[in-house]
Specification:
single chain; mainly alpha; Ferritin; 7 helices; Membrane protein; Ferritin-like; signal; DUF4142
């Protein structure tokens, strides 16, 4: 039993963001971060047009502004690190965007906020891991500087989500 507990604990520590960030190349990190930014901006632009909820629209406008600015800084850090960035969505993100595009009213707001909570949770994990153990100093600094904003976005999204689901 003790061996099982120790082994389980070791696996958990092995899966922490800091541990896996050591294996993430600068190009992979920059690509994942850039796709995340693009997804959040594209969903936010859709939310600005389609949502009827003032809090959701306000949040979406903040996403467009903040993630557009973050992307510009990421592009500079990536270029200095020799890592390419691409803003084309991967299949998973495109599927989420397409699914959201088919929703209206409260269903749209609920789905948008759920997507944003998930996206910001994933982004916070990615940034936290790379800021601790990333291999490219400029990208590592960008991750560290961007993480507090992403965490703030996550908290904001979580505070809006219950109201959007009513």
């Amino acid at each position: 039993m003790k061996i099982l507990i120790v082994a389980s604990t070791a696996v958990l520590f092995a899966l922490t963001p800091a541990a896996w960030a050591q294996d993430v190349s600068p190009a992979d990190f920059a690509g994942k971060a850039s796709v995340g930014n693009a997804f959040e901006v594209q969903e936010a632009k859709l939310a600005v047009k389609q949502s009827k909820d003032g809090k959701v629209k306000s949040f979406a406008r903040m996403m467009v502004k903040d993630h557009t600015a973050a992307e510009k800084k990421l592009e500079a850090a990536a270029k200095a690190s020799g890592a390419p960035v691409g803003t084309a969505l991967d299949a998973d993100h495109q599927a989420k965007l397409d699914a959201l595009n088919g929703k209206t009213g409260a269903d749209f707001d609920k789905a948008y906020m759920a997507d944003q909570i998930q996206a910001h949770t994933e982004a916070a994990d990615l940034l936290a891991g790379y800021s601790q153990s990333g291999g490219a100093p400029k990208l590592k600094a960008w991750a560290k500087a961007t993480l507090p904003t992403v965490k703030m976005h996550l908290q904001h999204a979580q505070s809006i989500a219950p109201a959007a689901s009513m």
